[in-house]
Write a structure and sequence with these properties.
3 helices; about 30% helix
């Protein structure tokens, strides 16, 4: 068994769309809403994502060059592609990861405001780890009830 699986974590591609994760790092508490594959709406950092922002999660790392792709792991650093930065954003160590099932029910109320914020961003930028077909999945997620 791999150390990251013993410590705890989750592969994003195994989660259904609209899964809400709370990711507590040493310095910030992030909220990530899965859309498809490795794409998430992430918020929780005052500079990089103060409001929900569509990003591609590369995976998790222990701080070196080895990356566990598509994985969010406790005791590791989360790495994601930000649309306004050329280099990936790497968080401080992840201390806890929690799924928030009650938050899934609240999502339909927030979709309208998220749709307004994200539609322009999605049309103007497609993360490398997200195929063009995933934009349609995001649109379907935002525009359905």
């Amino acid at each position: 068994m791999v150390l990251s699986e013993i410590e705890g974590g989750v592969f994003l591609n195994r989660l259904p769309p609209a899964t809400v994760l709370q990711i507590q790092t040493q310095h910030h508490c992030y909220t990530a809403i899965t859309t498809s594959g490795r794409s998430v709406l992430i918020s929780g950092h005052p500079k990089y994502c103060p409001e929900p922002l569509l990003v591609a999660i590369h995976g998790s790392t222990w701080g070196g060059s080895m990356l566990k792709c598509g994985f969010v792991g406790r005791g590791m650093h989360l790495e994601f592609a930000h649309p306004q930065y050329q280099t990936p954003i790497i968080t401080s160590l992840i201390q806890e990861i929690r799924e928030c099932p009650q938050a899934r029910h609240a999502l339909p109320a927030t979709r309208l405001s998220l749709r307004r914020k994200l539609t322009t961003r999605v049309r103007g930028w497609v993360p490398q780890a997200v195929s063009r077909g995933s934009r349609g999945a995001l649109a379907a997620f935002l525009f359905t009830t």
